[in-house]
Amino acid sequence: MMAFDSHAVLYVAPLAGVLVLALAYWARRTRVKRAAHWSDGLRAEAARHGRRGPALLGAAALAAVVALAGPRWGTRVVETEAKGLNLVIAVDISRSMLAEDVNPSRLARAKREARRLVHDLSGDRIGLIAFAGQSHIMSPITVDGSALNLLVESLHPDNTSAGGSELAKALRQGRELLMAKDEVADRVLVVFSDGEAHDSLPDIIAAADRLRRDRVRLVLVAEGGSDPVSIPVHDVDGRFVGFQRDASDQQIQTVRRDDILTAVADAAQGMLVAAEIGDQAGAVRELVAAFKRSPEATTTAAQDITRAWIPLLIASILLLIHSATRRTTALAAFIICLGFAGSLEAQAPRNAADEAWLRGDYEAALVRYLEQLREREAGDTIWFNAGTAALAYGDTAIARAALESAARSIEPGVRFRALYNLGLMELLLAQRDTGNLVQHLEESRRRYREALLIKPNDMDAKWNYEVTLQLMPPEDASGTEPPESPVDEEEAQPTLPQGLSVAQAEQILNSIAEEERRTRERLNRRQAQLRAARGRKDW
To answer: Around 538, how many Cα atoms within 13 Å sit in the side-chain half-sphere?
Structure first.
């Protein structure tokens, strides 16, 4: 059964055909009348040619508008084979992820980067987990990216009944979801979290170590800032009503826990994507690019296949017949050939800045690139070219400013090259400015670490990173301890009160220590009871 995407456009098709037919017929009659003003013979010649022209043009217009209506019919079986890996995205939806120390919030940024990751990894098999006090499978591993994006967009702390953040449960459930798939492709677990876990660190480390033993690749994506902030609370209409408070009515402060995220990444031998990276999804994409993918054949039955190409082909054939039967066809073809030949001869001039760079004239190249930046909107590639030319010329101030701008690009390739050159510049400055050797080497090492997050297998970046470690001077070159000041043996002896023996003094000290121990035990029990009365953490 035939169907159409737009029935309104289909209703317009006959009117468009009749209108074009009428206009073409009017144009032909006008041409014949004008020819009659010259001679009867010329009028007869004009009337003899182009009789089928109006009908051909009207039919072509009718077919073109029918194509715009989107005709569909029939069924087709589509067999596709794609190579993909098995990947699960776990998103922390605890209350602490609502903190707004990043724009617009930790959770909003995590959802944005997760959607971009789903888009960039189209063809891979992806699952989705949301976790807070409990871990929930939102979607099994699938290739339906549109459905995954809808589920990611709906994530919110109100979707779970258990507050807090149990990272170990998310790691275990992500492992179980991935282990259900075949072993041909690599298994990857990507976790978006601020690291503020409320379960014990040994449990999290044990879950991470199990991932390592089962050869599940773990990628942790850090969210949030390093300074403590409050957690805003909004009502159902989105209006701000205050800040999150605990059971004792104290305002809660949350902070990104890099220590926990680093410990988990080390235990799983995984990777940590820093919160400071602007394009976290791009960094994850580059990390998983080298992982093993397996082919998978899928067969789907497509219903109501679009057939718009058929009326378009008919319209094209009718126009071709109309053009071929006219006397002006040869002239039009000659003009088209001349235009095509002219376009081949007219080549765009080469970039003057690039030519100067190829000649080795780095000063002229730098001047040209800076002129391009002033003349038009600055692109990331131009910023990178200007910074590289400034570095080759020796102007580190311009090089640092330009490369810093390029390092904020959303294009992973441009960002990697900019970070690489920034690290190289700091290495060169370390050789020249020995007074600030440590500062330059630390900055170079930081730049190369960020570059390796984008391309972990780049051997040049790894080599330069090792060079920064080798050039770093030891903290204490002498290796000797400072000499102790001489102490008089008589002054070193303890002074006892008059009439108090050494045994009596030791007995008093032991009793004081025992009382201190008992006092600490009582305080610890009281604090435990208070925590139990208040309930578990729910942020």
So the answer is: 12
Q: What is the distance between the alpha carbons of residues 409 and 372, in angstroms, rounded to a whole number?
A: 18
Token look-up 């394009």 returns 279
pLDDT tens digits, residue range 349-360? 457 777 888 888
Mean predicted confidence (pLDDT) in 496-500: 46
Span 329-354, average pLDDT: 55
Beta carbons of 31 and 72 less than 8 angstroms apart: no
Structural domains of the chain, ranges and CATH numbers in brackets: 3-73+308-325 (no CATH), 81-298 (3.40.50.410), 352-471 (1.25.40.10)
- Looking only at the bridges linking them, the beta strands covering 271-273 and 216-222 are parallel
Intra-chain end-to-end CA distance of the chain, in Å: 56
pLDDT tier for residue 19 given thresholds of 50, 70 and 90: very high
Q: SS3 of 137, please?
A: strand
**What one-letter code names the amino acid at 483?**
P
H or E element at residue 229:
strand 229-230
Q: What is the pLDDT of residues 253-305, one digit of tens each?
A: 899 999 999 999 999 999 999 988 888 998 898 888 877 666 665 555 566 78
User: Among residues 196, 195, 191, 193, which one has the least CA distance to residue 219?
Assistant: 191
Contact 152, 118 (CB under 8 A): yes
Residue found under tokens 């600055």: 378
Handedness of CA 54, 57, 63, 68 (dihedral sign): negative
Q: Which residues on neighbouring strands pair with residue 376, listed in sequence order?
A: none
Best-predicted range by mean pLDDT (190-199, 324-333, 354-363): 190-199
Q: How many CB atoms lie within 10 A of CB 464?
A: 21
Average pLDDT score over residue span 246-256: 85
> Tokens standing for 208?
């991470």
Q: 22-31, 179-188, 350-359, 522-531: which has the minimum mean pLDDT?
A: 522-531
Largest CA distance in the chain: 151
Radius of gyration of the chain (CA): 37
For residue 161, the one-letter residue type is S
CA distance 5 to 7: 7
Residue 348 per-residue DSSP state: P
3-state secondary structure of 214: coil
d(CA 68, CA 58): 16
Strand partners, 301: 77
Nearest by Cα to 453 from 277, 290, 261:
277
Residues 261, 167 contacting (CB under 8 angstroms): no
